[in-house]
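ok posting inputs for the zinc ion job
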Amino acid sequence: MSYIFKENLVSSSKYSIKCPYPMKPRYVVCHNTANDASATNEISYMIGNNNQVSYHIAVDDVNAIQGIPFERNAWHAGDGSSGPGNRYGIAVEICYSKSGGAKYTAAEENAVYVMARLLYQYDLGIDALKQHADFSAKNCPHRIRDEGRWNSVKTRVETVLQAIKEGRCDPKLSSGTTVILPPYSPDDESPSLPGLKFTVKVICNELNIRKEASFTSQVVGTVKKGEVYTIVEVSNGLGRLKSGAGWISMGTDYVEKVKTDSSTESSDSFSSFTVKVICNELNIRKEASFTSQVVGTVKKGDVYTIVEVSNGLGRLKSGAGWISMGTDYVEKVTTTSSSSSSGYQVKIVNCSVLNVRSGAGTSYPVVTTVKANEVYTIVDESNGFGKLKSGAGWISLSYTKKI
Ligand SMILES: [Zn+2]
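and the output
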């Protein structure tokens, strides 16, 4: 689902009728139009007449059309010339509410994104999302209220707002796209030690650069799909750009590590591995792209062999297609055949320094470190970690390669 954002702003000669007061928004106010006109028609009618009634933006299944500047008031909440709804609320009209149906459902879904983005733009929390009925005795948004879905709408807006704050959804009202990327799951803690340096390629359309190593830190810029960056430090699941511009998510759905050790790696050296599905249902896609056609699903608890990884998706050995390798959806299964008492050898890869911990997990203290290209014997596996034969401790097997 997506929308195209357009402005069709009222002439300033009509400000005295439609939007006389400057406004610092405190609320986003949800309305249903109670008719079956398109967003384009709603706005052109509103800005073309000389009635006081006005609203900032109308959303349908295709478009989000803005008619009043967001930093001027509009007359939509029925609470009078000094009422908080009329004086501090951005009015969002959801179209096609009279008859409902698929066009209304799509309009409402687009409006969820519009409302979340407006809250974010004006630094407002979910409690600033209001209904017209919160300000005056009108049953509006009528369809949402009649169907008892206000809490559901609010929850959906909150979900998008949270995704925006975490860099998983484009915050710009004009971006239109409504893709939310899955949350980052920090199950593989990269070592954040001096000397760490590796290269990543951005695999999502756009990714926020944040000032600090926190998903709620200020956004200071963006990086784009296909761009390649050197990361010099990792903290809280974000990586610091060598350029000094800031931090970007290290989530495996957003970036992929670029192999730099060309001397020892070649494309045909990929070894297959086994994953278990840990979400209820996961799409199988035809190609290695999250927008590729869905050709089937896999279910929680199913185990599959992956023979190739690309763009954050893994190719099923069966040939059925590709599934997400997101750590919220699948987990690697350690192969039982390697659990013989003699152990097996691994080489440290994809990092320059790797922590050795006292137990099999990132919550255990670091006791020492090992370095890239060193070779160790693993005698036990647990939780994605391997126990060193030397007895020194455990290392994350995500940064090793069997030899
Ligand atoms: Zn209303």
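notes: The chain has four domains: 4-175, 198-258, 270-333, 339-402. The first strand starts at residue 4 and ends at 7.
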